[in-house]
Amino acid sequence: MPKLVRDRIPDLFPENVYHMLDEAEYARALRDKLLEETQEYLTDRPPEELADVLEVLHGLAALHGLTPADLEMLRARKAAERGGFLKRVWLDCLGTEPNDR
Predict the structure, then answer these.
(1) Are 37 and 52 in contact (CB under 8 A)?
(2) Are residues 49 and 37 in contact, defined by beta-carbon separation less than 8 angstroms?
(3) Are 59 and 30 spatial neighbours (Cβ–Cβ below 8 Å)?
(4) Is residue 98 in a domain?
(5) Count of the separate structural domains present in the chain
(6) Cβ contact 53:37 at 8 Å
(7) Which listed residue, 13, 57, 85, 100, has the most CB atoms within 10 A of its CB?
(8) Which domain, by its residues, includes 68?
(9) Which residues, including other chains, have CB under 8 Å from residue 51's CB and lie 6 or more apart?
(10) Per-residue pLDDT reduced to its tens digit, 29-87
(11) What are the φ/ψ torsions at residue 23 (nearest 5 degrees)?
(12) Verdict on whether the full-model pTM lies above 0.90
C-alpha cells in the first residue's frame, strides 16, 4: 500500500520502489499519516505510536514554517492561557449566557 514513510526507510529496505513527493502531495500525505498514526495509537495504545504522531506533527509544523521549538512555544502559550489537559476537566454542556464561557 503506498504511503509516506520515514526518510531512512529506502536505505533500510532498498528492494521497494519509492519516489519523492511534491509539496502539495507531501502536505496531503502528512495529513493522511497523522490519521494513520493516530488510529494506530487509539487501537493499540503503545507509547511508541505517540512518537510517530509527534514526528508527523513536526513535519506539518515545518509546512507552516515552524520548528519543533516554535511548535512547543505555541503549545506552552496555549497551556499558560487556557491550561493543559492534566486535570481531566470534562465539559458537560455550554452555559446559556455568553459570559459563562
Answers:
(1) yes
(2) yes
(3) yes
(4) no
(5) 1
(6) yes
(7) 57
(8) 10-82
(9) none
(10) 999 999 999 999 999 999 999 999 999 999 999 999 999 999 999 999 999 999 999 99
(11) -60, -40
(12) no
